[in-house]
Amino acid sequence: MASQHPIVEYTSQASWAMIEDKFSPYAKETLTKLIKFYEEEILPARRLSHAQLPEDPVKRWKTVIPVIEELKVKAKKLGLWNLFLSKAHYPEHGVPLTNLEYAVMAELLGRAGHMAPEVVNCSAPDTGNMEVLAKYGTPEQQKKWLIPLLNGEIRSAFAMTERHVASSDATNIRTSIRREGDEIVINGHKWWISGAGDPRTKLHIVMGKSDPGNKSSYHQQSVVLVPSDTPGITIVRPMKVFGYDDAPEGHCEIIYENVRVPLSNLVLGWGRGFEIIQGRLGPGRIHHCMRAIGAASEALDTMLRRVTDPSRKTFGKYLHEHGAVIAEIAKSRAEIEAARMLVLSAALQVKNADITPKGALKEIGIAKFVVPSMALTVVDRAIQSFGAEGVCQDQGLAKMWAGLRTLRIADGPDAVHIQQVGQRELKRAPGLVKKAAELAKREDALFQKAGIKKGKGPSLVAIFYVLNFEKNSVINPIANPPLSSALPFL
Ligand SMILES: Cc1cc2nc3c(=O)[nH]c(=O)nc-3n(C[C@H](O)[C@H](O)[C@H](O)COP(=O)(O)OP(=O)(O)OC[C@H]3O[C@@H](n4cnc5c(N)ncnc54)[C@H](O)[C@@H]3O)c2cc1C
C-alpha cells in the first residue's frame, strides 16, 4: 500500500504505488519540497512573470524577467536545482536523483509552462546542452561553459536544424565546419534555434559537416562550441509558433558566416557529432513527455473548474451535467493515466539500463509520439469547454496547445519515431513465424492422433471475431480483419 504523499494530488494513487519504493528518502523529501515551492512560490508568480515581459517588440528580447531570477535564488537555496542531472550518470556534477525520480518532478513542473523548469534550472535546451558538456566536454570547456550553466548564470542554444534541408534526417545537415590552422571556421544557415534570442545566452553548440566525403554518413558531422558574441553570427529573426514568439528565449533563424573559434572548441573529436546528438536526447525526451503530461493534467483541472462554474448553464443544464462533457472528462483522465504509466515505464527502463538510455529506446520512442498527441487532445477538450474564451489570451490554454503541438515536430517528428518503433517491431516477425510453424506442427500431431483431417477452417481469433459480430458486437471482422501476415498460421 503506497503512502499518502502530496504528489498523489497531482498524479494518482496508482502511479505513486507503482514507483514509491523506487524513490530514495532524499527523492521523496525533495519532491515534497518541490510541491510546496510550486504551490507557494511558482504558481502565485506566473501572471507576474508574463506581465514583466514587455509588449515592446525590441525590449521583450532584452528582458531578463525579474521574478524568475528571484525565484531561481530561492530554489537554489532550497536545493531545488539541476534536478534533471542524475548523479548516477554524472557523478561529478549531478544531483542524487534518478531519471525516474526526476520524471515525476518534471510532470509537476510541466503544469506551469516554461517558467517552472527555468526556475529550478531544468529547462531545455540548457538541460541537453549541460549533459553534452558534462559527458563530452574537456575540463577547460566544462570550466568555461558547464559551470556557469549549472549555476544558472548563462543560457545556451543547440544549433542543428537548417532552413534549406530536411533536418529530421540529421545526415542532411550542410553547415560547413572546417579546420584552418589553429582555428575552426563555420558557415551555415540554421533556424528554429531555441534560446538564441535570450540576452543571457552566451553559448551556441553548433552541429555541422566537417567531413562530407566520409564513407559513413554518420561520421561526417562534428560539434563545436561557439560563443554567442563571435563575429559572423547574425540572428536573422525569431520564428513564431502559431503567432507566439516565445520571447525572450525564442527560436531563431541564424546565419553563421566565417565564424572562427579556436580548435579547442571542438567537442569530443572530429566526426563524432552524431554520437553527441544521440547521447544528448534520450532522458530529455522522457522529461518532455512528463512535462506534457503535467500540461494535460493542468488543462483537465482547468476544464473541471470551468464546467462546474455555477454561473454557466446551457439548455437547462450546467455544463458538467451534459453527458458529452462528462465523457470528455473521463476520456481525458484515462488517457493521462495511460500516458503516465507509459512514460514511467520508459524512465524505469533508463534506470535499469543504468547509464545510457539505449536500453529504453523502444519505450522512449513510443512515448515520444504517443504523449504529445494525447496531451493535445486533452488540451483541445479543455479549450472547447471554454467556448471562445478557450482560444484567446485570457486563458493559457491556447498557448499551451501551441507549445505542445511543436513537440510533435521538434526533436524528431512523430513520423520518424513511428518508423523506428515500427522497424524495431518488425524485427520480432521472424521469431513469431518460427513459433507459428512450431505450433502448426503440434496441431498436426494432435489432428493426426485424433484421426481428423486438418482443414483450412478459421482460427480461434477469427471465430472470436465472427461470434462477436453475430452478437451485434462493435467488433466487426470486416472493419478489423485479423492480419493474416502477422498471424501466418491462420
Ligand atoms: C518550437 C521548436 C523548437 C525547436 N528547437 C530547435 C532547436 O533548439 N535546435 C534545433 O536544431 N532545432 C530545433 N527545432 C527544429 C526541429 O528539431 C525540426 O523542425 C525537426 O527536426 C524537423 O525537421 P524539419 O523541420 O527540417 O522537417 P523535415 O525534415 O523537412 O520533415 C518534414 C516532415 O516530413 C515528415 N517525415 C520526416 N521523416 C519521415 C519519415 N521517415 N516517414 C514519414 N514522414 C517523415 C514528418 O512529418 C516531418 O514533420 C525546433 C522546432 C520547433 C518547432
UniProtKB/TrEMBL annotation:
Gene Ontology molecular function terms on file: acyl-CoA dehydrogenase activity; flavin adenine dinucleotide binding
Q: Give residue ranges for domain Acyl-CoA dehydrogenase/oxidase N-terminal.
A: 65-153
Question: What domain of life?
Answer: Eukaryota
Cite the entry's keywords alphabetically: FAD, Flavoprotein, Oxidoreductase
Which Gene3D superfamilies does this entry report, sorted A to Z?
Answer: Acyl-CoA dehydrogenase/oxidase, N-terminal domain, Butyryl-CoA Dehydrogenase, subunit A, domain 2, Butyryl-CoA Dehydrogenase, subunit A, domain 3
- Alphabetical list of InterPro entries matching this protein: Acyl-CoA_dehydrogenase, Acyl-CoA_Oxase/DH_mid-dom, Acyl-CoA_Oxase/DH_mid-dom_sf, AcylCo_DH-like_C, AcylCo_DH/oxidase_C, AcylCoA_DH/ox_N, AcylCoA_DH/ox_N_sf, AcylCoA_DH/oxidase_NM_dom_sf
Q: Which residues form the Acyl-CoA dehydrogenase/oxidase C-terminal domain?
A: 271-424
* Gene Ontology cellular component list: cytoplasm
What protein does this entry describe? Acyl-CoA dehydrogenase NM domain-like protein
Q: What is the native source organism of this protein?
A: Mycena venus
